[in-house]
Amino acid sequence: MGSRASTLLREEEIEEIKKETGFSHSQITRLYSRFTSLDKGENGTLSREDFQRIPELAINPLGDRIINAFFPEGEDQVNFRGFMRTLAHFRPIEDNEKNKNSSASEPLNSRTNKLLFAFRLYDLDRDDKISRDELLQVLRMMVGVNISDEQLGSIADRTIQEADTNGDNSISFNEFIKVPPVDGEQDY
Amino acid sequence: MDFTFSRRTGVLLIIWIVFSVLPCCNGEVPSKPTSGVTIVPPIKPDNGPQAYPDAEKANLPVFTMDYPRIQIPFEVTLWVLLASFAKIGFHVYHKITVWVPESCLLISIGLIVGAIMHSVNEEPPAVLTSNVFFLYMLPPIVLDSGYFMPTRPFFENIGTVLWFAVVGTLWNSIGIGMSLFAICQIEAFGVQDINLQENLLFASIISAVDPVAVLNVFEDVSVNEQLYIVVFGECLFNDAVTVVLYNMFNFVAEMPVVEPVDVFLGVARFFVVGLGGMGFGILFGFVAAFTTRFTSKVREIEPLFIFMYSYLAYLVAELFAISSIMAIVTCALTMKYYVEENVSQRSCTTIRHVVKMLGSISETLIFFFLGVVTITTEHEWNWGYILFTLLFAFVWRGLGVLVLTQIINPFRTIPFNLKDQFGLAYGGLRGAISFALAFTLPDNIGRRQLFITATIAIILFTVFLQGISIRPLIELINVRRTNRNLDTINAEIHCRLMEHTIAGIEDLCGQWSHFYWKDKFMKFNNRILRRILIRDSRAESSIVALYKKLELQNAMEILDTVSGDISAAPSIVSLYEEKKNAGKPKKMFLAADLRNMHDILSKNMYKIRQRTVAFTGKHALPNDTQTKEILIRRHASIRRSLRPGSFQTTKVPKSHKYFSLPAGQSLDSKFPPGRQSFTGDQETMSEVAYPTRRSRFSQPTRSSSRAMMPLRRLDTLKEASSIDILDEIKDDGAKVGRSVPRTNSSSSDSRLPARRHFHSSSDNDNGSSDNFRNVHHEAEGEEQPPSPPPPAWAVEPRDNTVRNPLLRRPQWNPKKM
C-alpha cells in the first residue's frame, strides 16, 4: 500500500483523521493508498497536476473547480490531511453519528457543509456571494455549445431571480441553502 | 420527402427480395452444364439479354451467362445487402426504432422473406448451417462486444459477472430441466418419452442468455452502468458453462447410466473449458500486441493483425472444444490496450470501424436468418411442453436472479436494488446462440424437432415480448422513483452541479475494492509488459491515453487556428454588455419562458459522466462529443489565457513544480526521452519539451496549475473596456499571419511550451506553427506588459501575474467554444 518510508501513515495520524473526518480505519487506509498512487512526485503532497492526471476529472465539466476545492487559498499543494478533510464532505451522513455528541462544531459532512462546498464551487472569489457572472461561468461549463449567450444569460437571470431574496442581484449562502434539497447528497 | 423516401425504400426492398429469392430458386433447379449457353429457368425475370435460344448453330456466342459459377458469393452478397437495406429502412421511421428493438424488426423481415420463400417452395440458402453460424457469423459479434467492452467497470464487477454467468446458468439449466422432466411425467402432454438427460440438454440450450439479443435491447433503455456490465458479462461468459453443459448432457444422453465420476469430470471439464478459453485468449492477445510493436513500417495492414489474431484465437479454441467466445473476448480485451498504443491513429480508427461494421452485419444477418428459418423448417408443436418451457424459463430466471443477488449483494460496493434485479431478470433474452445450438442437436434424440420448435418459440417470445416491453416497464419504474421537484430552474442547475461534483469526487477516489490488485497489476504492467509489448514504452499517463483515444489531436489543431479565436470574440463582448446592463429592471419571465428554459437545460446540460466512454449504443461507435467538447473548451481557454502578458517571468523552480518532474531533474530520470515533436530543437526546449505523448498530458497540467489560484477580484471585467478586448483580438488576427523562424526563446523554460505539443506527432509543421504562436504570444506579451489579465475570464490576482504565467485561471470561460 504505497509504503514509502517518509510518508507512511502512522496510527496516530489515522486516529486524528478519523476523529476529524469520521471515516473508518479501512476507508482511511484505502484513501491513503489512492493518495499515494496519485502522488507521482512521491513527496507526500498532491499538486494540481496530480489531480489533472485523472482522466475522468478532465472530462468532468466541473473538474477544475472540484480540483480547486482541494487546495486551500493560496496554496498549491495538498497533503493527506487536507485531502481527507475535503473528501470528508462527501461521506454519507449516518444515523448514528458518533461525533454528534462530542464536537461542538458540525461534522464535516453535514448538509450545511456539503452545501457550502457546492457554494464554493460557484463562488470563486470567496466573497460569499454568487454573482451573475460567476453563475454564468458555471452554467457555461455545464452546458453544451448549442446554447447562445443570451439564452444562458436569461437562465442565469431567472436563477438569481428565484433565489435572491434581498435584492442584491446575487445569491448569498443563506439564499443558496433554501434551494430544495438535492438528491445527490446522500448518494455516496 | 420522408414519405417518398420510405416508399422508395419499400419498393427497393421488394425488388431486392424478389431478386434474392430468385437466385435461390436457381439453386434448386439443376442447371445443365454447358459451355456457352445457359438455360434460364422460366420463373426468373429478365436478367439481361437472353442468350441465343437455338443451340444448333455453332456460332460464337456473343453473350453468355454462367450463373452457377458465381452463385454462392452472389447469394451471400444479396442477402447481406438485403439485410442492410432493412436496417436503413428502419431508421427512416425513427419512432419505430424507439419502441421496437432492432432485433425484432430484423426477425420480422426475416419472417416475411421466409414466408415468401416458403410460398414459392424454396429452401433457404444452404449457407445457414450450424457451422457457418458458429464459424463465420458469431465471431464478429463477439469480437465487437469484447473490443468495446468497458474494461474498468468490467473488472470491478468481475466477481458478480462470473457469479451470475456460472452459477446462474447452472441454476437455470438444472431448474428448467428438472421442472420440464416433471412436466413430462404428466401424461396429458404426450411427451413422456423425453427422459431426464434430454430434458437437461434442452434446458442447457435455452438457459443461455444471449448477448446479441440482450445488448440490442438494452442500448435504448439506458440501464445503469452496473446492470449493463453484469448482463453483458454474464452473456459473454455463460457460453463457457453452456458449452460444457451441452457437451456433457449430450454425451450423457447417449449413455444409459450416469455415474458420479461423470459429474466430477463435468466439473473438471468446466474449468478446462473456461480457463482454457481465457488462456488462449490472453496468449493470442499478447502475441498480437507484440506483433504490432513491429508494424510501424507496414501501417496499412496493421488492422489485419487484430482481426486475424482474434479469429485465430476463436478457431483454436473451437479446435479444442473449449469456450471460443471466452477466448475471443479475452483476446480482444488484452490486445486492445497495447495495440491501441502501438498502431497509428488511423489504424486505430480503422480497427474500430471495421469491428463495429462486421459486428453489425453479422448481427443483422443472424436475426434475419432466424426469421427465415423459422418459417422454412418443419415444426413439431406441442402446446403443453412449449408453454411450460416458456413459463419455467421465465420463473427460473427470476428466482435465480433474486436468490443470487441476495447472496452476492453484501460483496458488492454498489448493491443491486429491486429495480436492478428486475432489469436483470427481465433482460434475460435468448437469441441466436440457443438457436444454433438447437440445430446442432444430434439426430438420435427422438424429439429433435420439438426441441427446435420450442427453442424458436422461446427466442421469439423473449425477443419480441420482453424486448418490446422492457423499455416501457423500465421507464415506468424509473418514473416512480425520481420525483424530484423541478419547479425551479435553480434546483435543476444545482442538482446537476451536485451530481457532477459527486461523480468527480467518486472518480477522484478511484475504485474502492480491488484497488490493491489493480495497483499491482499496473506496476507489473508498466515494468514488464509495456516494455515488451509496446514500441515506445514510456510511462504514459492516462490523460494522454484519453486524448489519443478521443482523437483530439486533430481537433486541437483545428481549434488553434485563427478562426477559432475570432469567432469567440463576440461572446466576450456580449457578456460584457450584459454585465453593463445588470442594472436594468428585472425581467419578468413568462411560464413559457420557464418551460423553455427547463427544456434547454435538460437537453443541453452535460450528462453525468459515464465512467466508460464506450458505454452507449451497441450499433454506434462510442459517442464522445460531450467529452470532446469539454476538453476542447478547456484547451481553448487555456490557450487564450496564455496569450497576453504572460511571459515575463521566471521563477523557474516554482514553475517547474508544475511539471511532473521535481525541479532540477532532467527528463531522463523519470521518463526516457522519446521523440520530440519538433526536429532541431535545442536544449532549452528539450528541457521542457516533452515527447509528444507526455506533453499532451502536461497540457492539462498547465491548466491545472494555472487554474486554481484563488480569485481576488472579479472586477477585472469592469476595468477592461470593450475596446481593449477588440483590439487584442484584432492584434491576434494580425499576428497570426506572421511566420516566424523557429527560435529557442530563453523564456521558453518558464513558458510552458507544452501546449505546442498538443498537436499530433507530425513534426515540422506543428513545430513551426506552435513556435510562431509562442513567439507571437511573447511579442504580444512584451507589448502589453501592464495590461490587465484577459478580462471576463481569466480573473486573477494581479501580483501573481508576474510571478507565474501559469497561474492563470483559464477555465471559467463563459463564451462559446
From TrEMBL, chain A:
GO annotation (BP), single: protein transport
Domain EF-hand residues, every copy: 26-61, 110-145, 151-186
> Where is it mostly found?
membrane
Which domain of life does the protein's organism represent?
Eukaryota
Q: Do you know which Gene3D superfamilies this protein is assigned to?
A: EF-hand
Per UniProt, the keywords (alphabetical) are: Calcium, Cell membrane, Cytoplasm, Lipoprotein, Membrane, Metal-binding, Myristate, Nucleus, Phosphoprotein, Protein transport, Repeat, Transport
List cellular component terms (GO): cytoplasm; nucleus; plasma membrane
Localization (cell): Cell membrane; Cytoplasm; Nucleus
Keyword presence, Calcium: yes
> Has UniProt tagged this entry with the keyword Transcription regulation?
no
Annotated membrane-spanning segments are: none
For this protein, what is any one GO molecular function term?
calcium ion binding
SMART domains registered for this protein in UniProt: EFh (SM00054)
Query: Pfam family example for this protein?
Result: EF-hand_7
Q: What are the boundaries of the signal sequence?
A: none
Q: Which InterPro entries match?
A: Calcineurin_B_homologous (IPR051875), EF-hand-dom_pair (IPR011992), EF_Hand_1_Ca_BS (IPR018247), EF_hand_dom (IPR002048)
Q: Which family does the entry's similarity section mention? A: Belongs to the calcineurin regulatory subunit family. CHP subfamily.
Name recorded for this polypeptide: EF-hand domain-containing protein
- Its source organism is Sphaeramia orbicularis
From TrEMBL, chain B:
User: In this record, what's one Pfam family?
Assistant: NEXCaM_BD
> One of this protein's GO BP terms?
regulation of intracellular pH
Q: Which InterPro entries match?
A: Cation/H_exchanger_CPA1, Cation/H_exchanger_TM, NaH_exchanger, NHE_CaM-bd
Which residue ranges does UniProt annotate as crossing the membrane?
Answer: 70-90, 97-120, 132-149, 161-188, 227-249, 269-290, 311-335, 355-376, 383-404, 424-441, 450-474
Biased region (Low complexity) positions are 761-771
Q: Quick one: signal sequence residues?
A: 1-27
Polar residues composition-biased segments: 676-685, 697-706, 741-750
Q: Which residues form the Cation/H+ exchanger transmembrane domain?
A: 81-474
Q: Which residue ranges does the record annotate as region Disordered? A: 663-713, 734-817
Q: Which GO terms describe its cellular component?
A: plasma membrane
Q: What is this protein called?
A: Sodium/hydrogen exchanger
Q: What is the lineage of its organism?
A: Eukaryota, Metazoa, Chordata, Craniata, Vertebrata
